[in-house]
Amino acid sequence: MKKIFILAISIACISTSFYAQEVKSEQKAHYNTSKFKQLKDKLPTPNKQHTASGAPGYEYTQQQVDYKMNIVLDEKNNKLFGEETITYHNNSKDNLDYLWVQLDQNMRAPNSKTNEIKGGGPDALYSPSKFTKQFMGKPFQGGFNIEYITDISGNDLNHMVNNTMMRVDLPKPLASGEKFIFNIKWWYNINDYTSIRGRSGYEPFSDGNNLYVIAQFFPRLAVYNNVEGWQNMQFWGRSEFALEFGNYEVSITTPKDHILNATGVIQNPKDVFTNKQYKRYIDAKTTYDNPVFIVTPEEALETEKEKSNKTKTWKIYAENVRDFAFASSRKLIWDAMAVKLNDRTVMAYSLYPNEGNPLWEEHSTRVVANTLKVYSEHTFDYPYPHATSVNAKRQGMEYPMICWNYGRPNANGKYSERTKKGMIGVVTHEVGHNFFPMIVNSDERQWTWMDEGLNSFVEILAEYKYDSELFPMKSTAKDITRYMSGDQSKLSPIMSQGGTVINFGSNAYAKPAAGLYILRQTIMGPELFDYAFKTYAKRWAFKHPTPADFFRTMEDASAMDLDWFWRGWFYTTGNTDIGIKEVKKFYVTNKPTERAKNMAKAYGITVDQLPPSLYLVSEDSKEFDKNLKKKKPEDYNLLSDYVEQNFTSEEKATLKAPKYFYELVFEKPGDLVMPIIVEFEYEDGTKERKQYPAEIWRLNDEEVTKVFPSSKVIKNITVDPDEQTADVDLTNNSWPKNKETKFEQFKRNQIKG
Amino acid sequence: MSLKKYLYILFLIPLVAFTMHKYYISLCEIEHNEEQKSLQITIGLFIDDLEFTLNKKHKKTLNLATKQEVENIDDYYQSYLNNHFKITVNNNLKSYTYIGKEYDDDIVRFYLEITNIEEIKALEIINNLLFKDFKEQQNIVKIKANNIHKTFYLTAKNDKGLLNF
Questions:
Q1: Do A127 and B10 touch (CB under 8 A)?
Q2: Measured between beta carbons, which residues in chain A are less than 8 angstroms from residue B31?
Q3: Which CATH fold topology does A33-60+443-574 show?
Q4: Cα gap B66→B50, rounded to integer Å
Q5: Cα separation of A164 and A241, whole Å?
Q6: Which of A5, A36, A66, A390 is deepest in the core (most CB within 10 A)?
Q7: How confident is the model at residue A584 (pLDDT cuts 50, 70, 90)?
Q8: What is the pLDDT of residues A36-57, one digit of tens each?
């Protein structure tokens, strides 16, 4: 036995050196082009702030910004007035000469550059109002009007506005650990967002009332962090925000008959609600089963008939949030339900006009509750006191604790399944944003996918939980193939700044979500994936993560090298196409095959000197003898003797020699590497699955061969039968090749039907 | 038509694109089956985009792919296809048989066939489905004939693909 072993080893050694000499010398050299090459050339070098494991390091710092604001909503003139006192805490190790403040409303100013960068021909039609705004010198007078910027003693502060960013010069550099307090007074004209688009503004109703959804409404500090310094990339209108955490003390004066909710908790509910409403507001906090009204549909109908000239002031406090937004109108109904999350109870709220019913009272608050539960399971228990969904026409926009969502029935109160699906989808999505990016606070201006992609992924799981029939998640991978197989000149890698991509929705939402879905369901499995994903969320809750922190944490917490996946799916525009190219059946023989004979010759030994062996011979080769078909492997003494001598009788009982050997050749015309999932259907109708890890492609990116032993005859082979890998071309996925096309199958069924 | 309706049409699209995970792509596959002398065509469109376009065109609520879908929906589909999808074989504009449609989640797939096509020397496709209402719409046309594979990416600027063999 020992001798044979040594011989086998020496053959292996000879074979390496033998083939090494065969390499042709005129071929060109190249850099490492392996798809399994580590990502070190793409990711920033880890440091003590963002560590190699993907966690925040011990030198990680983050600024804090607190706001005290007095806001007045002037409904008559559609103006918003504000006075704010900002306390900026410099927790970084650096001295700061100036602060950057974001003026998002300036995107709508007459001199905004947002319109200047838009290409394209004329619109199909122009309303008179649009025509005058665009061509007749009467643009909407949007943008901030800053009345003063002063320090704590009332002295004016030097400042310079560069479009949507304002530099505030500090009287003396702000040292590490110090704070700077300053005041800004401002006002602006609120836009009708149904005609001048935007995520903030008001929706006018035919009854003369407005529904205000107000956001990006005050000058807000830009982020100063460990990787970008100041994140003061301009706001062009699409790529969202980067914001610091802080505490907000806000009072908002509205018409007396308005109903309002905001980021944070109302501090004076007795002053702003009627007695009945106040009682319901308190009772709701212990109502867990079904939503209950705080403001009823009847009350809202009654209130919207008239307009009060008096005002009232809502006092609100929000702790550790990155932004502040509010919705206000006399048309609003308010319903509520308490949600239990382990040892916490939080509130799910919905505010909507009667126009949203019956759809909204049936679903909104229930969807909010479901979203909080599912997201909490996958990240951390929702830490804020409430999550509120506000019905706003054609909006889908998120802020801490509060979001605007579309979806209304027809005038007769009826709604289609699609309207319902859209509404449940958008509420889940926008409430889900509380986790990404409101708490796991990535830089949206730079990396859209970090909030939209991660959020769209958890959204799939949450919607499935809410209504698995309406939201089957099985087709997630398949659905992205239409985008990924599109014209390469119109595709961008996910790792692109949001403002620069075509097909923004699929690039930054659907593709990363589908990628994570594939990772969870197919590559890592739910157990490994969920733990790693949760680790990322917990590590970066209330902090500013970067893409590398996510990629590294997913590997750090799972012991899976996923660099190949990040590289392909996130850094390139490649797609998946894996097929089965050839299938050969082999039989066992004890006669050396041509191949074995050649091997012996190459090593200068005779055939007799080959160690005693069995050989596999292909059914279609000349050497094949049809008598072999009748033989089982154990019919050969060589094998049966070996088994007899080396195994106990118990062991022997469990040994089973396969009858058939298949050589499977898989091809990969697609750029991406993926696991190969194969389904074998046997003659007797039974099926078996086998999944080969993606690493099967590590030595050959185009084709791999596997030997598959089987005790039954294989009738059909299908690659990726459930379409789990986003394979863009299924015509090469089956053996034998499907003769009947999908078209013919459909036609046949039509004629039958 | 009131001013309000105009605004609705104008502004619905950018706002939806703004917030939803959405892209504007259709896939048309054309294959010549020489044995059956047939040109087999499938076209997949997003149901919500097609519904928006058809509702607007007919000023009706058609409720595609729902229980409330209008009974003669195939008439609407056929007429829309005939206007916006044209196919010329060997310099002759051909009419096609509408075999049927299937709904597959958020996609509607049409099956069309042109029979008695023995040989293809030239194939011209005009596909401007959904271009009118969706600026970003991109119609991919994949052709398989005479053992040749060819893909066109058609947009509002160029809605025509011509293939000579």
A1: yes
A2: 741, 743
A3: Neutral Protease; domain 2 (1.10.390)
A4: 14
A5: 12
A6: A390
A7: very high
A8: 999 999 999 999 999 999 999 9
Q: What is the pLDDT of residues A516-543, one digit of tens each?
A: 999 999 999 999 999 999 999 999 999 9
Mean pLDDT of A239-267: 97
Q: Note the pLDDT of residue A24.
A: 57
* Type of residue found at A569: W
Query: Please, are residues B48 and B106 in contact by the beta-carbon 8 Å criterion?
Result: yes
User: Which residue is closest to B100 within chain A, CA to CA?
Assistant: A750
Q: Which of the residues B1, B9, B21 would you substitute to probe the A interface, choosing the one with the greatest number of A C-beta atoms within 10 Å?
A: B21
- Residue A453 has phi, psi (to 5 degrees) of -70, -50
The pTM score is 0.89
Residues of chain B contacting A744 with CB distance shorter than 8 Å = 33, 40
Between A400 and B9, residue with greater pLDDT: A400
CATH pick for A63-244 out of 2.60.40, 1.10.287, 1.10.3470, 1.10.10: 2.60.40
> Which candidate from B12, B23, B63 shows the least CB-CB separation from A503?
B23
Verify whether the Cβ–Cβ distance B25 to A417 is below 8 Å.
no
- Whether chain B has a CB inside 8 Å of the CB on A656: the answer is no
pLDDT digits (tens, 9 = 90+) for A216-249: 999 999 999 999 999 999 998 888 999 999 999 9
Residue A367: strand, helix, or coil: helix
Question: In DSSP terms, which residues pair with B161 in a beta bridge?
Answer: B125
Q: Where in chain A is the domain with CATH 1.10.390.10?
A: 33-60+443-574
Partner-chain contact A418 B18, CB within 8 Å:
no
Answer yes or no: is pLDDT of B21 > 80.
no
- What are the extents of the domains in chain B? 3-164
> Angle between the A448-466 and A359-378 helix axes, to the nearest 10 degrees?
110
For CATH 2.60.40, list the domain ranges present in chain A. 63-244
Would you call A197 and B15 a contact, using CB atoms and an 8 Å cutoff?
Answer: yes
Residue A195 contacts B where some CB pair is shorter than 8 Å: yes
Q: Does A419 touch chain B (CB under 8 A)?
A: no
- Confirm or reject contact between A124 and chain B (CB < 8 A): yes
